[in-house]
Amino acid sequence: MLIGWIGPQPDKALQAAQLEAINVGECFSCSLDDVLDKCHFGDTLAVWRLDVFSGPDEISRTLKTLNSRGVAFVSVHEGVRIDADSGALVRDLIRDVAKMAAKYQL
């Protein structure tokens, strides 16, 4: 199942735009823990942008959790797709790039 997550989004206009961009059957505006509870083996978690996460460490932890459950990951805006087979390598690469972006405010 393809599961969309936009995070807790108080801005209704932005929420609607993100939901439309992700374009999946089930999309949630809830906490990260709540959406992870909905993800099971064979599912794919889709987000609009990586900045839905609080930072590089949360991205890394989430991708590690998804990988351990056999859940794929897609970030629509950045064009990132991680399947369960390549999860560890890509997770570490994304974490390092996110840390560099935060450090240099890119």
From TrEMBL:
One Pfam family cited in the UniProt record for this chain: Resolvase
SUPFAM superfamilies: Resolvase-like (SSF53041)
UniProt domain Resolvase/invertase-type recombinase catalytic: residue ranges: 32-101
Lineage top rank: taxon: Bacteria
Protein name: Recombinase family protein
Organism: Motilimonas cestriensis
